[in-house]
Each structure stands twice: as structure tokens, then as C-alpha cells.
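A favour, since you know our C-alpha cells better than I do. What I am after is a single protein written out in full by you. Could you add the entry underneath, on a fresh line?


***
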Amino acid sequence: MQDLLAGKTAIVTGSTSGIGEAIAEAFAAQGAWVAIIGTNAERGEQVVKKIKESTHSDRAAFYSVDVSNTTAVEQIVKDIAALKGGIDILVNNAGITKDGLLMRMSENDWDAVIQTNLKSCFNWAKPVSRLMLKAKKGKIINVSSVVGLAGEAGQVNYASSKAGMIGFTKSLAKEIASRNIQVNCIAPGFIETRMTAVLPSERKEEVLKMIPLARMGTPAEVANAALFLASPLSDYITGQVLTVDGGMVM
């Protein structure tokens, strides 16, 4: 099926690389105009250029913003809504890791992960959902992690932020479902990104043993799940967590 998102306006945070970039590209390929959100202007403009070349149209624009800055996010949402006449899709994908055992974890490492991964959902979903409530339609997708479902030693901050995103998703889904707005969550497993590229080879071997499909996933495979949840194909699905993990967590 082509043009599943024709005429739609989407915001994808953390979309200058990895999973977010793949989601932005998938959305644009299906007809959406996409706001690329990040802090690295060079990578952001590269994604915009890539989308322009692949779609032969101006279907993307880069916005530099710290997703944990409430005031800055609210202004960006206003700017995009004014430019495009509304916002149809929001993907909260921005995320960082600052791993370490709890006994050695600094307060700054805890706060940074919670602010970027979890508070950003609040910062974006609040102003965007206001617009969607008025329009009586919309899709919000939060990119969590299987770590938020199963936990992982050395990642109490990351796991807490990702588990929080799942609770956020389910609660918001119940709050705004009556206005025809669907809120869902994707929980990727081990995906081939810059974040997993730094894993030691021994750790990668351990990981593969835990995955029934015996391989890591690709950003495009997560993007396919996001495309489904952003499209009319998922209009009767809300408050759900879709794992994209090769069967790692069942």
C-alpha cells in the first residue's frame, strides 16, 4: 500500500539517526511531511536532504531543540502547527543511555536519562494532544524498549525511563481515546544502531543467544511497526505495547 500517510504532518523526536531517522524516512515515503527533531544540526540537515532526494519533494524540515526543555518544545509545536495547520502524528523516540550500577550511578546520570527519555514525552504530548483533541483525531507513538518490560542490570535509569513511557502510554490512551486519538508504544529489542554498536563482542554473543530469531533487528523493522501504528490500519488499536525484538521478550 502506498501513501498511507498522505497529507499528514508528523513530528519524530530523536530522528537525526538510528531508529528515529528510519521512522522519519518511512513516514515521508508514505506521503507525510516530517519534522526532524534533534540537537545535531549537521545530521538533521542530512536526514532532510536524504528525504528530499528519495521523495523528490520537500517533505521534511529540521528543528534543533532540547526535548527536555518544556518551553522550547512548546514553541516548536506552535511553530509547526502554524506552518502546517495542525499535527497528526507524534513519535516520542528521543533517548539516551548513561549506564552503570546503581551503587555507582551519579544523580546527574539518573536525571539526564529521565529528563531526556521520559520527561520529553510529557513535554511533547501535552501541547500536541491539545491540538489533536480539537481536531478529534491523531496518533501518538512512544518508543520504549524491552528493557522497560524486563529490566537490565546496569540500566536502572534507562529501564525506569522506558517503563515509565509504557505507563504514560496506557494512561494517556485512556484519557483521550474518546476523541479518536490512539496512543501506543513500541518496545524495540536489540537493534543495529550506534547505541548497540559499542557493545563488546562477548556481550553481543550473549544477546543473540536470548533472541529466538538469532539476530539483531534493523531500524527499518522498527520503522515498519511505527508506520503501522501511525496509519489508518491501526485505528482500533490503542494503549498497546508492540515489541519488535525477534521474540526476546514473550
Q: What stands out?
A: The radius of gyration is 17 Å. Residues 28 and 59 are 6 Å apart (CA to CA). The longest strand covers residues 181-188. The chain has a mean pLDDT of 96.
